[in-house]
Design goal:
Strand order of the largest sheet: 4-1-3-2-8-5-7-6
Mean pLDDT: 88
Bound molecules: protoporphyrin IX containing FE
Shape: globular
Low-confidence stretches: 1-57
Strand content: 15-25%
Structural class: alpha+beta
Number of helices: 11
Distance between the termini: 38 Å
Number of strands: 8
Largest sheet: 8 strands, antiparallel
Number of domains: 2
Radius of gyration: 22 Å
């Protein structure tokens, strides 16, 4: 087959970007993709923790990226990309393509088949037919996207900036920052990889991976909230995602100054890749571990109560005799009227990256959180945690701050359309 014919075919199947790196094909790839229906009765029929409510949360259309509110999936990957598109028009094509691949991957169906000699449209990892609604996506934009390359500085989200280093951080530039972040969630690791390969294939030439970390959520052990790799239930206390007023107050960007109009309905994502020094931790007494966290390891209950979901009562323990003043949960959320505005929506995942060069186990937490204002919320909480006893057992090594643009207004809309 001639190169010309190959390129023609590639353009039709949306694969030419992978073979030639040509960006002009991205919008054709977008047009060729079949992603459509996003509403439906169920998400992941038959899988664990599947509810109609969750199907609703994955919907692309509407003012928000609703996957932000959904419960963590069993498998995930967080990938930061450097954008290498050469112009604002190419960036627009890239955002269209990302959106259209996400729609397609979410909608499922039978991948296009162009004959045995053509490059395959789908990587085949999930078999010949893609199940519907089995992957969720969150797209974010880093502060570096708003540098001189695309002339976007005037439209930069007002509260977006480059992640700073905190005391005790050990940030590795190779795992930090990025122009775009893509988080893919699914119940199975192969579903996540399938989606990642699809997105990278269709966007080659316009963005390239900068860093990536894969995570998993454990099943409840034995019940309730799943555990992190320190052995504690993680994710118990969070703002109520079904309370729309609370989400407006804490998570979604509201209309009005200082934010540019296009950001309304978006949210700010913080990603922190936090290594756990598990071999030290496993030598610490249970008493000490529980005092560092402020909760019982077995049950997840605060030290002053018996049930996982009981609220700790700090007012009746002002000196910290029951829950130490330095306990992680007490510093992170003192639960006073003055600190209510700094609450964050946390979504944590475990990671396991084998062993490091010194032969130490490389495990930890992919900490993500969502908020309306990084400074008012994440930075305030993180600042309260500086010097907590837990810092001897954890080491933040990477991540970044990203702005997640609002949801989509209709089937032809794409993420960031109001920006580019
Ligand atoms: C490896 C690092 C970390 C570990 C092992 C960890 C562990 C935990 C655990 C076990 C809990 C109690 C269960 C729960 O309510 O979810 C908790 C709560 C919490 N953590 Fe962390 N955490 C880590 C990092 C962070 C960071 C970086 C922040 C924010 C800067 C943070 C903020 C919070 C908040 C706000 C709560 C809820 C407190 C409450 O409302 O009672 N954590 N964490």
């Amino acid at each position: 087959m001639s190169r010309r014919r190959l390129l023609q075919l590639g353009a039709l199947t949306g694969t030419v970007a992978a073979t030639s790196g040509a960006l002009g094909s991205l919008s054709r790839a977008a047009a060729a993709s079949t992603g459509s229906g996003t509403d439906g009765p169920s998400f992941l029929d038959g899988a664990s923790k599947v509810t109609a409510e969750r199907a609703q949360l994955q919907s692309f259309e509407g003012p928000h990226q609703l996957a932000v509110l959904s419960e963590p999936t069993r498998a995930t990957t967080v990938v930061a990309f450097d954008v290498i598109a050469g112009s604002r028009a190419e960036l627009r094509d890239l955002l269209r393509t990302i959106t259209s691949r996400m729609r397609y991957l979410y909608a499922g169906g039978t991948p296009q088949f162009d004959g045995p000699a053509a490059p395959t449209d789908d990587n085949g990892i999930l078999g010949p037919v893609l199940p519907a609604r089995n992957a969720s996506f969150i797209l974010g934009m880093g502060a570096s996207l708003f540098d001189d390359r695309f002339g976007l500085k005037p439209a930069q989200p007002a509260r977006l900036y480059t992640m700073q280093s905190f005391p005790n951080d050990n940030l590795d530039p190779a795992q930090t920052q990025g122009d775009l972040s893509v988080q893919i969630g699914a119940e199975d690791a192969d579903t996540v990889l399938h989606a990642l390969r699809d997105i990278t294939k269709h966007t080659r030439g316009a963005m390239q991976p900068r860093w990536r970390v894969d995570g998993f959520k454990s099943p409840p052990r034995p019940s309730g909230t799943p555990r992190n790799l320190l052995g504690f239930k993680d994710g118990i206390a969070n703002p109520d995602t079904s309370d729309a007023a609370q989400m407006r107050q804490l998570v979604w960007v509201q209309p009005g100054s200082p934010e540019p109009a296009w950001t309304t309905g978006g949210t700010y994502q913080v990603v922190r890749i936090i290594r756990m020094l598990v071999e030290f931790w496993d030598r610490v007494s249970l008493y000490e571990q529980e005092n560092m966290i402020g909760r019982r390891r077995a049950t997840g209950a605060p030290l002053d109560a018996n049930s996982e979901f009981a609220a700790p009562d700090y007012a009746t323990d002002p000196a910290g005799n029951i829950i130490p003043l330095t306990a992680h949960i007490r510093l992170a959320n003192p639960r006073t009227p003055a600190t209510a505005d700094s609450r964050i929506l946390r979504r944590g995942y475990n990671f396991d990256l084998g062993v490091d060069v010194n032969g130490n186990l490389n495990q930890g937490l992919i900490f993500t959180c969502y908020q309306q204002d990084i400074q008012r919320q994440f930075v305030t909480v993180q600042t309260r945690l500086i010097g907590e006893p837990l810092v001897d057992y954890i080491s933040p090594v990477g991540g970044g701050y990203f702005f997640c643009p609002p949801g989509l207004e209709g089937r032809s809309d794409y993420f960031g359309s109001g920006l580019v």
